[in-house]
Amino acid sequence: MSVTVRFAPSPTGNIHIGNARTALFNWLFALKNGGAFILRFDDTDVERSKDEYARQIAEDLDWLGIKPAQTAKQSERFAIYHAAAQTLREAGLLYACYETAEELELRRKIQLSRRLPPVYDRAALKLTEEQKAEYAAEGRKPHWRFLLPNFDADPFVVARHVVEWDDVVRGPQTVDLGSLSDPVLIREDGTYLYTLPSVVDDIDMGVTHIIRGDDHVTNTGVQIAIFEALAGKGQAPKFGHHNLITTTSGEGLSKRSGALSIKSLREEGVEPMAVASLASLIGTSSAVEAKPDMATLAAQFTPDSSAKSSSKFDPEELWVLNKELVHNLSYEAVQPRLTRLGIAGGKTENFWELIRGNLSRVDEAADWWGIVTRGPDKTESLDGQDVAFVREAFDHLPPEPWSRETWKTWTDVVKKTSGRKGRQLFMPLRIALTGRSSGPELADLLPLLGREETLARRP
C-alpha cells in the first residue's frame, strides 16, 4: 500500500515547535516509507484564517525541509462537504437539533446533579415536523449532529460500542462510543466544524495514515465511525497519536501566544535540523542528537518510540544541538549564507574553518569577520601593565611567510623575554588581536591576519 499522510494546520497563527512535531512525524513517516505528504489548510473558519499565516506556515515547513507533494485549502472545497453532509442526511445519520447553548448547558447541569454522564440524550430525534416548523418560525436555526452507531435498534437505548484500532504510535487503542455524545458536525450558521471536512478530505485525497497529537485519541473513535458511514466498513485510514510538547513549566503551546514559533526560532538563527532533530526525537526512546539531514533523521525515526506522557521542551537543548550543527557545517554548505552576511573574498574559506567552532549561530560569523578584516572588538580591554607587555611583545613578531607554527615561534620568544607564561602570556595577546577573551585558535588566526594587519593591532 502506498503511504499518504497529511498535515492540516489552521492558518490562524504561526506554527510552533509542537505543530512542527506533528508535521515532522508525518514527513519522516512518509520519507521512511516512500510515501507522499499533503499540506492541507483547515481554513473553514473564514474569520480567523489568514492568507498571511498560510504563507508563513508553508515557508516554515519548507525551511524545515518538508516538501509537500500537494497543497490544498479546505475553504475551496465546500461543495464536496455539502455533498457528504447530504449523503449522511439521506442515510438518517445527520439530524437537526434546535437546542440553544444555554438549554444544552442547563440539561448538562441537571444530568451532573443526578450523577449521570453529561451525554446528549438525542431529544432532537423525537421532534415532529410541526415542532421543527415552530422552531423555524421563532427564528431558530438547527445545528446538525452525527448519529453514532452505539445502539442496536432503538437510538434511545445506548449500548457499549467499542471502536478498536492498532495505533502506529501507541499500539492497540479502544474508544467506547456508548460513552460519547453525538458530535456536532455543522453549526447553526451552516459552517462546518473540523471533523466532517477532515474526514471527507482524507477519503478524497487517499490519506492512508493520520498521525497527530494524542489529544485527539477520543476523536478517533468518532472519526472512524464517520469514515465508515461515508466510505464503508473498514475503510478508515490507520491512526497514530504522538505525545505532546509543553513548555518547561508544563504549559501547553499555543499559536495565539506565539510561544516557540518556528518563525521566531528561525529569526533567532536556529538551524532547521536543530529544530527538526529536537522536535521529532524529544519524548521518544531515541537519543536526542543533532542529525545533519532529513534522510539521517528518517533512518532513526520510529513512531512507536514516542512516550505516553507529554515532553517538556527546553530551548537550551535546542542551542546545544544548534552549536553542534554549526560547528560541523562545511564551507560549501554555508558559503551562500556568508555572502549574504557580507563575508566574501579570497580568504573566506580559511576564515570559516577558523571561526565555526566558536559560533552558536551562523550569523555570529559577521562579528568575527569584522574582527578579522577591520580590527579588534571592543568587548575587552587591556590594563596598563598588559599594554606595556603587548607593545613589547609586538616587537618580536617573526618575519613572513607565516604559518600555523608562527604563533609558537612568537610566543616562545615573548615568554623568554618577558618571563610571563600561561594565561598571563596568552590572554593579553588574544585581547590585543581580537578584543575578546575567547575565540578561535590564535595559531590559525595569525596566518589569516598576516604580519601587516597584526602589527596594526599593536596598542
TrEMBL record:
Its EC number is 6.1.1.17. ATP binds at K255. A motif ('KMSKS' region) lies at residues 252-256. The keyword Ligase applies. One of its GO terms (biological process) is glutamyl-tRNA aminoacylation. It comes from the Bacteria. Residues 3-319 form the Glutamyl/glutaminyl-tRNA synthetase class Ib catalytic domain. Keywords: Aminoacyl-tRNA synthetase, ATP-binding, Cytoplasm, Ligase, Nucleotide-binding, Protein biosynthesis. GO terms for cellular component: cytoplasm. Residues 387-457 form the Aminoacyl-tRNA synthetase class I anticodon-binding domain. GO terms for molecular function: ATP binding; glutamate-tRNA ligase activity; tRNA binding. Belongs to the class-I aminoacyl-tRNA synthetase family. Glutamate--tRNA ligase type 1 subfamily. This is Glutamate--tRNA ligase.
